[in-house]
Design brief:
The protein has 145 residues and is an alpha/beta fold. The protein contains 4 helices and 5 strands, in the order E-H-E-H-E-H-E-H-E. It starts with a strand and ends in a 7-residue tail after the last strand.
Length: 145
């Protein structure tokens, strides 16, 4: 049996630092291998294998940022960029294909929760229901203003 596998799904530049930091801490605690995943959501009118670098460039930038964070924390990290129609399905599919033991995802809070409730988006709901492993959801603290 190999090392446990931890995968972190990165979505935007604002959350990469905190998600990768948390994932590095978790991977180190279990002596696991860490992978950062970014899913490029491709519109239905565009072929998934379209030779358009403009589709992948933002995701490649995020994965480069993830590598920098991990290196600064003295962690090894591999990166993976995939294209898909549905982000949640792609995250779950990659977790299954790679035999991931722990999946770390972020939750973007569009507005403050009402009475302490958290409304999960469709991607996060799909991942939480269908992931083949444990899922840790990082919820950012509310902004004080």
């Amino acid at each position: 049996m190999g090392k446990p596998k931890v995968m972190v799904a990165v979505r935007n530049a604002d959350s990469v630092e905190s998600l990768v930091t948390l994932s590095c801490q978790l991977a180190s605690a279990i002596d696991g291998e860490l992978t950062a995943l970014h899913v490029v959501e491709v519109p239905p009118a565009t072929p998934l294998d379209a030779a358009a670098e403009v589709l992948d460039y933002p995701g490649e930038k995020l994965l480069t940022q993830a590598k920098r964070v991990a290196e600064r924390l003295s962690n090894q990290i591999s990166t993976q960029l995939v294209r898909a129609r549905e982000v949640g399905e792609a995250i779950v599919g990659e977790a299954k294909n790679q035999g991931v033991d722990l999946l770390v995802v972020g939750h973007h809070r569009p507005h403050p929760p009402i009475l302490g409730e958290i409304s999960l988006g469709s991607t996060l709901q799909f991942v939480a229901r269908h992931a083949p492993c444990r899922v840790i959801v990082q919820i950012p603290p509310p902004e004080h203003g």
